[in-house]
Amino acid sequence: MPQAGYLFKGVCFPDALSARQAACSEFPLTWASGTSVYSLSCSPTIDLESSSMSMCRTTDGGPCATTSQPWPTFPDCNFSGSSDLVLDWGFLAMSLLVVIWGGKRLAALFNTHHVPD
Predict the structure, then answer these.
(1) Rounded distance between C-alpha atoms, residue 30 and residue 9, angstroms
(2) Which residues pair with 67 in a beta bridge?
(3) pLDDT of 1-48, one tens digit each?
(4) ω into 28 cis (within 30 of 0)
(5) What is the pTM of this model?
(6) Residue 49: helix, strand or coil by DSSP?
(7) Average of pLDDT values for 73-93?
(8) What is the 3-state secondary structure (H, E, C) of 50-84?
(9) Closest residue by Cα to residue 22 from 38, 30, 11, 35
């Protein structure tokens, strides 16, 4: 039975906290505007269970100004770990073995030595 997961940037995570941790790992962002350098990162005391991201914004390496922004949306995805993949490859391997075995048995039927009279 497929287990519901949370999709972030093409990766399906088993729970919302893992997806939020991955979203937080996208930071810090640093950019320049004019003569100032800005940095945005997840707050060191971020609560992954809160309803919004706590962000730390600094200007020119100054003190942290904490702001909040909503978490990115995490669409539903099928998180079944690797069990589906293992079953698919197992079925493929067994099918291949059956075809090879059947081919050998069929070849053995026609592999008779003809003795000329």
Answers:
(1) 20
(2) 55
(3) 456 788 888 888 888 899 999 998 888 889 998 899 999 898 888 888
(4) yes
(5) 0.58
(6) coil
(7) 75
(8) CCEEEEEEEECCCCCEEEEEECCCCCEEECCCCHH
(9) 11
Map out the domains of the chain as residue ranges. Answer: 4-78, 82-112
**Tokens 């949370």 sit at which residue?**
6
- Cα separation values, 4 from 27, 53, 71, Å: 26, 23, 19
Query: Is residue 56 within 8 Å of 40, Cβ to Cβ?
Result: yes
- Please report where in the chains the tokens 């067994």 appear, as a residue: 94
- Among residues 16, 80, 96, 81, which one has the least CA distance to residue 50? 16
Amino acid letter at 87?
L
Residues 6+ apart with CB under 8 A from 65: 56, 57, 58, 59
* pLDDT tier at 80, thresholds 50, 70, 90: low
